[in-house]
Amino acid sequence: MTKTTFSRFIKSSAVLFCFLFLLWGCSQEQTIEFSIENSENESIEVPVFVETAILEGKNIEQFVLFQNETVVDFQVEGDKIWFLHHPKKGNTYSFKAKDKEQVVSNNFSVSKENGSLQLKSNEKALISYRYEMTYPPAGVDSIFKKSGYIHPILTPKGDTLTRIQPDDHYHHYGLWGPWTHTRIDTTRVDFWNLGDGMGTVLFKDFKSTESGAIFSSFVAAQEHLDFKTQDEPQVALNEDLQVRLWDLGRDDRYMFDYVTTFNSPLENGILFEQYRYGGGLGLRFNERWKADNCSVLTSEGNDRLTADGTNARWCIVSGESSDGKGTNGILFMSHPKNRMHPEPMRIWPIDGNGGRGDMFFEFCPIRHEEWKIEPDKTYDLNYRMVVFDGKLDANEAEAYWQAFAISPTTKLIK
């Protein structure tokens, strides 16, 4: 090799090295690594989020999220990037610049069908919110008509867990949460027992819907109407109900949040009197569950015989599946910030309903103490439920509750 050729080779190699170094540097700049911190959960998949600020102003659409070498679906909501955390695969994640066009998953969707808004996973409706009026069966007083409730709730395999308008309680509507014994100034108003004609809770309009790879959700405005005013019904409470269906990455479970935010426009507000029913959330289970084929287990170790009137962080209600070959049910969780948490419960006695032992569950924050709702002040209650086929044990229930109660944080690695 001549001296001139060697010199050219050295210069070319230097240029190539600089180019590769720059490429490597750009690649490093386009990789953002972080870890999930202070997570008590080491066994179950749960949704978590990282702030969009972690990208330092870069466009999220230019990135792919990885856990180890596996691509992880994510969904952006405002300044949050949601994804499903798989703790068994480790706590470290990274955003990497796209090297090619990625296929974007859109597993969760929202649709309106026949007067109900449905939250779907892979086109399968799991939760339905009724926004149009439902009338009672022929021959039953129309005073029992209702909108603004959730039914049906289906298990992943398709079993219906909720029930509406049972002939022993026509005012029961799947999953719902009217207040029972309330007082407006000196007047008693009941929004729960529709047959008394004192009040009701009805759907008003939808404020938002969202769907994507990780969740689908809606926010519905509901009005608690007082029928005892002389001229026309008055709005005693304005409520925003947010329901969000989450991915858990399994075919035998899913999770949804139920958040009610409310305020009173009345001059003197409203008093929720102490009573064993009212508010929170209540669920009338399907008629197939009786005293001999369903069970209860609470975070404090109480069962169907002892749980009523006690307090709990979480409660598992489960029973026989429709084919008689297995079980399914719901894990109910109360958030630590809820009033009276651990929260009081109403669970029907095992010998109720003429000895049938039908199943009814409620988190009831006014079971032991009244609650004064001051005018124009906003209040909220936050619940989470895991709907499952098969079984869900106490250790899993506690892990789900811990993930609900203590939000994991993220730590930037580089």
What is this structure, in a nutshell?
This protein has 414 residues and is mainly beta. The protein has helices at 3-29, 394-405; strands at residues 31-37, 46-51, 63-67, 70-72, 74-77, 80-85, 92-97, 108-113, 116-121, 124-130, 149-153, 175-176, 182-184, 187-189, 199-211, 215-226, 234-246, 253-263, 270-272, 281-284, 294-298, 311-312, 314-320, 327-334, 343-347, 360-363, 371-373, 379-389, 409-412. The chain folds into 2 domains: 30-103, no CATH class; 108-409, Beta-galactosidase, Chain A, domain 5, CATH 2.70.98.
Structure description:
The protein is 9% helix and 42% strand. With 414 residues, it is mainly beta. It folds into 2 domains: 74 residues, no CATH class; 302 residues, Beta-galactosidase, Chain A, domain 5 (Distorted Sandwich), CATH 2.70.98. The strands form 6 sheets. Strands 15-16-17-18-28-24-23-21 form an 8-stranded antiparallel sheet, covered by helices on one side. The chain has a 5-stranded antiparallel sheet with strand order 4-3-7-1-29. A hairpin with a 2-residue loop joins strand 3 and strand 4. It is globular and about 65 Å long. The two termini are 45 Å apart. About 4% of the residues have low confidence.
SSE inventory with pairings:
Elements: H1 3-29, E1 31-37, E2 46-51, E3 63-67, E4 70-72, E5 74-77, E6 80-85, E7 92-97, E8 108-113, E9 116-121, E10 124-130, E11 149-153, E12 175-176, E13 182-184, E14 187-189, E15 199-211, E16 215-226, E17 234-246, E18 253-263, E19 270-272, E20 281-284, E21 294-298, E22 311-312, E23 314-320, E24 327-334, E25 343-347, E26 360-363, E27 371-373, E28 379-389, H2 394-405, E29 409-412
Antiparallel strand pairs: 1-7, 1-29, 2-6, 3-4, 3-7, 5-6, 8-9, 9-10, 10-11, 12-20, 13-14, 13-19, 15-16, 16-17, 17-18, 18-28, 19-27, 20-26, 21-23, 22-25, 23-24, 24-28, 25-26
